[in-house]
Design goal:
Helix content is 37%, strand content 17%. By secondary structure, the chain is α/β, with parallel strands linked by helices. It is globular.
Amino acid sequence: MSKFVTGVWNHKKKAVFFGGLAAWGISYGWEKKRTNDEMHILCLRAKAFGDELIKPGQSVRKAVVILNSGSHKSKGRKLYDNFAAPLLNLAGIQTTLYVTNDTAKLRDYLEHTEPTNAVIFAGGDSTIFECIQSFLTLEKPEFLGTPVGILPLGFTNVVYNSLRPDNLKETLKIAQAAMTIVEGYAQPTDVLEIRIGDKEEKEYALAGLQWGPLKDVEVTVPKYWYLGPLDAWFAYFRAYLKGQLSELSVALQYVNACSGCSRCEEIAEASRGKTEPAVRPGQAPVGVMASRTWWQSVIPRQREVLAEDLPEEPRLRQYHSVNDDCGVIHDAAFRTKDLHLLSQNIPDHKTSDAAVCFSVTGSE
């Protein structure tokens, strides 16, 4: 023992180096074992779904997975194969996998996809953004109401973290996201529709919209990865020296959120219009001829039922009070370095009313 202590004392640098290396190895091995144990538990839970018997007339669950293999520094495919695919396969979900590095091809994949039980987007924030744009602008009625799943394979995963906040390690976060899809957990989600000026093009967002020079600098932070924890500080300091953090003039028009009133109901009815005409009990649907049977050879065929022939039933109103501020447009003008429009999907900004929250940084 004394020789060991003497040797360590005489070789201090080597002792510190190999001691640190041993500590890192132990920590890595412990995290690896913990991840494997958690994956084992999740695999057993997924296998329980796969062992369920399929009833006569019931089809196998199907899912379409669109994977950006370039996410997470081209580790997206490896992360998917190790932490998501095993759970989907054990659960008996028949998956159709599309792998691409070009986000411009995402719409082509969706257009050639057959009706399925779920569509899964696997990638980072940019991949999720492009997939949401393509999915919501897709003109395929068979996809209406199809659940959308997200596998967080990127670095930041702001969209996923806003929907399912947790403190899990990135590998376990992916596995837990896959398990959420296996269990069929569904969560209603708000979608922001963004239009620029009078253009017909639309953009969609789940978490929110950030605009300003601070966002422009935030995008450049990963370039200074070699600075470690000082990468963000250096990026913002460099932008300040270059004069890139100038304030923006913002003119904002907004309507205060309303918890519900008769005026809201009138606006909703006017925008909804007549989408599904009413059908009387025992009658054929509007615009559809009654099925022909043998006795119709003697009895005249039932005529076609038209929407204008049906009496309009009065709609029961849910609200009777009127909010004088409902629908009133307010104006605001200010200068800011950062503008955030946040949807109700952000846990810290949820309100009792259906509204979009906005916050500013360095405003006047």
